[in-house]
Amino acid sequence: MLKPMKVVLSPRGVRRVLARHPWVWRDDVLGMPSGPSIYPVEGKRGVLGWALVNPESQISVRVFRFGDVDDPLDALWENLQRALEYRRSAYEDEQAGLRLTYAEADMLPGLVIDSYARHLVLQAHAAAWEPLLDELAERLRESLAPHSILARHDSPLRQREGLPRYRKFLYGEAPEAVTVREGKIRYLARPNSGQKTGAFLDQRDNRLFLGDFVKGRGYQRGLDVFGYQGLFGLQLSRHLKSVEVVDSSAAALAAARANAALNHAGNLTFTEANAFDLLRARERAGERYDVIVLDPPAFAAKRADRERALAAYKEVNLRALKLLRPGGLLATASCSHHVGEGEFYEMLAAAAADAHRLVRLVARRGQAWDHPVLLTVPETHYLKFALLEVLA
Ligand SMILES: C[S@@+](CC[C@H](N)C(=O)[O-])C[C@H]1O[C@@H](n2cnc3c(N)ncnc32)[C@H](O)[C@@H]1O
């Protein structure tokens, strides 16, 4: 039997695409070609859009253009150009760290490209990108004149797509560490070896916001828990007397120390510890702080982990609230997209109640502006960030 050169969706799949969700699960596909590529997506009444298709993936269809188009590849490159233009003025700063494409939210399914002082790191987690990588690199060079382009394709996510894992420069080379500016501080991003693509850019605006907020308010003692390379701590250290950065990873703390040295920040200290143990021990010791940051990893990697994750979030938030002086600040985040925004704030309220503290919400924030959220795609909104003030 001849394989169809298009994707035919079930009625449920059609409803999903009409509701402007770009993903269609394998179960909602009635027929599709046998290999990954770009294909039209059809319901009963004709073409609904064009998609990156991979029969091997659970998410078999990722729409990048709703409606029909003469040249689908042109449409994909148009999406790329639009994403780059959206960030153009920020990219003008040669030392900026920013996300240039945020996958589905830029209609570039599975494609994330970050820039660290114009060294680009890309991750393409949809199989149909693989044969397009050289052209993608060429277009990025033409549009942005970067110093280097690294395909960091070493994530286990690639296996779900049946893709090989590798790391390879598509253009130029990058040094082991690149200096990036973030407001008044600088840090070393490690595109080749750091967590994520080299830094947590999604928290950039929250770090800057917190740094600005504490300025001139007389706070003295800070604790940056789950601190990784100390970037929240560094923003705080400009206005506080001392800040302790806590992480369970020795490599993360080595990076934090290097960042402190780069900024001549002598008021930072570094502690390698499990955050859960450390917060409990500090409470037992009667320690008090003015500002605490909690930026844990995603406790819920999958939906089934949600309850356990919420309990873990509550535990660290409750401990932190108990450790704060009246008037103190808790900057707290969750990057688990399986934990919804409503659940996150309910968890915080429950933690405040159990800690017997009167707490007010000062700011309710999310991902940095270069990680925009599609309203019809809840998966694109994963980062919750609250700034809380303990009144009493
Ligand atoms: C989301 S990252 C923090 C990013 C950082 N705040 C920033 O802005 O760059 C989470 C960090 O928590 C650390 N971590 C994970 N589990 C931990 C634990 N139980 N105790 C302490 N640190 C932990 C990881 O090593 C990682 O560096």
Describe this structure in words.
By secondary structure, the chain is α/β, with parallel strands linked by helices. It has three domains: 7-70, PUA domain (Archaeosine Trna-guanine Transglycosylase, Chain: A, domain 4, Roll); 73-178, 2-Layer Sandwich (Transcription Regulator spoIIAA); 200-390, Rossmann fold, CATH 3.40.50. 30% of the residues lie in helices and 30% in strands. The protein contains ten helices and 20 strands. The chain has helices spanning 11-18, 72-91, 133-144, 157-160, 204-214, 231-237, 250-262, 275-284, 306-323, 341-354; strands at 7-9, 23-25, 29-31, 37-43, 46-53, 59-66, 97-102, 111-116, 119-124, 148-153, 166-171, 178-182, 185-189, 221-225, 242-247, 268-272, 289-294, 324-334, 359-365, 384-390. The strands form four sheets. It has a seven-stranded mixed beta sheet, sandwiched between helices. Helix 9 (306-323) links the parallel strand 17 (289-294) and strand 18 (324-334). Helix 2 runs parallel beside helix 3, helix 8 packs parallel to helix 9 (306-323) and helix 9 (306-323) crosses helix 10. The structure holds S-adenosylmethionine. The site of S-adenosylmethionine (SAM) has 18 residues, from helix 6 and helix 8.
